[in-house]
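Re: [ENG-882] Designed sequences occasionally contain unexpected residues at chain ends

Forwarding the minimal case from QA. Structure tokens:
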């Protein structure tokens, strides 16, 4: 997550009552499918390895992360959206890439609309001033979210059950000021990209102790939270006061899509300022990630995303203010 300079004070957070949920929420088309914790761990461990040196955009070691994510697309038969998977940033002074692919929808009409699923794969690299471990491996921030997107890719490439098309984006230079998502959102806007909604995964590596699994940024800006809970048939996402206090809606890669397209564009997250103390620190390591929690959350999100891509109308909409 883009650095929050006023992060340190400790608050006691409350939550708003969750929206009502339909008891008879429909099951996923492929309800028996389960993301595999071993695969989740394997992806996460590679992205957080010292070999990648903290995934600093423009660094030589970042090339290994790019190649890895390209390979995820290739192995799963996902096409590049542009000429290649590499979307070169136009707003960064080093060579850095978003890694972008898409799966076309299977409905003759709805396939012209896109759901964007994304996460930033960069982090803050090496801190030469640090004592001891100098590599900021960025396990929670945001190898965890990146890993989630790889699992969403595997699911839809396997079943191809999305009526709408899905654009997958691994963003670079988020830590430099959302540069990757700003570049891509602007580029797509200039091409008259037909977007329905954008969902971003950020910092999902540790669970919260609340009556919902994750919170959503910009909770009150759309009905995304209530629709997700309806699709899931449970209190999956809720409101966290801290996201409003720290203005997290504007702190991750959902925001440029909101500003460019004025459509529901939000982030799901399970870092709540109380459950993890190693934000932007070298201790943010693979060994501290709860991969069972990550896998469970991914499995809960898969049918939600499936229903979002398949709704006959644009059920998720901005709220009038």
């Amino acid at each position: 997550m883009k650095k929050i300079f006023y992060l340190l004070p400790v608050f006691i957070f409350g939550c708003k009552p969750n929206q009502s949920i339909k008891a008879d929420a429909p099951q996923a088309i492929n309800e028996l499918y389960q993301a595999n914790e071993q695969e989740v761990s394997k992806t996460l461990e590679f992205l957080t390895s010292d070999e990648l040196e903290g995934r600093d955009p423009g660094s030589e070691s970042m090339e290994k992360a790019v190649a890895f994510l390209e390979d995820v697309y290739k192995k799963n038969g996902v096409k590049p959206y542009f000429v290649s998977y590499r979307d070169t940033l136009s707003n960064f002074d080093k060579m850095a890439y978003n890694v972008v692919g898409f799966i076309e929808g299977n409905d003759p009409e709805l396939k012209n609309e896109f759901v964007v699923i994304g996460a930033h794969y960069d982090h803050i690299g090496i801190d030469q001033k640090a004592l001891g471990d100098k590599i900021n491996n960025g396990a929670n921030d945001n190898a965890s979210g990146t890993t989630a997107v790889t699992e969403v890719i595997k699911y839809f490439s396997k079943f191809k059950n999305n009526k709408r098309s899905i654009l997958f984006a691994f963003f670079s230079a988020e830590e430099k000021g959302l540069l990757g998502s700003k570049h891509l959102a602007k580029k797509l806007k200039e091409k008259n990209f037909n977007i329905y909604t954008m969902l971003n995964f950020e910092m999902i590596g540790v669970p919260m102790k609340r009556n919902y699994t994750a919170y959503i940024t910009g909770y009150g800006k759309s009905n995304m939270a209530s629709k997700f809970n309806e699709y899931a048939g449970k209190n999956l996402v809720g409101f966290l006061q801290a996201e409003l206090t720290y203005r997290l809606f504007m702190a991750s890669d959902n925001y440029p899509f909101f500003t460019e397209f004025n459509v529901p564009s939000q982030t799901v997250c399970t870092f709540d300022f109380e459950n993890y103390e190693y934000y932007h620190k070298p201790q943010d390591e693979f060994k501290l990630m709860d991969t069972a929690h990550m896998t469970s959350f991914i499995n809960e999100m898969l049918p939600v995303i499936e229903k979002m891509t398949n709704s006959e109308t644009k059920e998720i909409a901005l709220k009038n203010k």
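QA comment: On inspection the terminal residues look reasonable. The helical segments are 37-47, 62-75, 139-159, 179-190, 224-232, 241-245, 255-261, 291-310. Proposing we downgrade this to a documentation issue.
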